[in-house]
Amino acid sequence: MYRVLAAAMIAGFVCLFLTPVLIKILRGRNVGQPIREDGPHAHFVKKGTPTMGGLLIVLGTCLGYLLLSKRTPEGLAVLGTMVACGVLGFVDDFIQIRKKRSLGLKPSIKFLGQLLIAVGFTLAVTNLSYAGHPALPEKFSFLGGTFGPSLGIFFFLWVFIMISAESNAVNLTDGLDGLASGSMILVTAAYLLIAFTMFRHPISQHPRFYPFTGQPALDIAILSGAVFGACVGFLWWNAAPAKIFMGDTGSLALGGVLAAIALITRTQFLLLILGGLFAIETMSVVIQVGVFKLTKGKRVFRMAPIHHHFELGGWSEFTVMVRLWIICGFCVLAGFAIFYVDFVARVP
Q1: What is the pLDDT averaged over residues 300-314?
Q2: Contact call for residues 129 and 324 (beta carbons, < 8 A)
Q3: What is the distance of C-alpha 93 from the center of its chain?
Q4: Which three-class secondary structure state does DSSP give residue 38?
Q5: pLDDT tens across 187-234, in order?
Q6: Which of 24, 131, 174, 226 is most buried (most C-beta within 10 Å)?
Q7: Is residue 313 part of a domain?
Q8: What's the pTM?
Q9: Domain count, the chain
């Protein structure tokens, strides 16, 4: 566990102490966040706030993981997914800043980039293994084991759906100061414990324990700890009123790494519960757009994602953020409780 904690501390210190330096550099280059013109009026004062803070989240995570882990193929594949999604987000942020508008990459280009990332990740984790530990089966998973028939080539599509959905879900959630980074702290804390539990109880001890175990599981715990620490350090500066935003660089990277961790730990559907807040934010947009198109103009929410609905209803930004953190906390507790009950049932 000391490696996990050390990785979290390294990543946290990187974000905590280097973010002021990045803020100064970005202000000097006038790298500010464009604001949606149709968004809540209270957000207009945020125009020009430095963005791309996700660069330090990715950097802190990389340093924390690479310095403390054994760099297993599984861990490197997950880290590579985070970096690749971060690069995609950086391009998106750069276009927004360059064109001085809140729209970056075309959706088709972004989805193409996520598809290429999904293909690369799938090829890596389904063909590589560490010291005899099995590669990722091409099946669905829930609580550390797989089920159903082999998906074969369709597994590429499933991985793409997961990476695309989760990275865009975190991106949608990143609409209030500290909301996405604070929520990621809770979710990655759960995955830290899940991966470490899988490491501490190898299948060699009992045939009912989880097949994902050993050094790869410890590496994922270290990586989760690094993401946790990076988000804690970044939240110091991202809390309301935010001195810097993570931008798409951070939100796409964080969503991508969450999906990759869920895939590699065989907890794909458990992520829907642990990351329930991200699912709620995404579904609010899907419902809003769907109803608007079907009814030719009617809306379910005052504005989507749903955090803007509450803002326009009179809640302060801070109140919305804290209450959504609470919802995220309940989702994490529910998800981890399900995992823990399943784990206890496996203990001989």
Answers
A1: 89
A2: no
A3: 17
A4: coil
A5: 999 999 999 999 999 888 888 899 999 899 999 999 999 999 999 999
A6: 226
A7: no
A8: 0.93
A9: 1
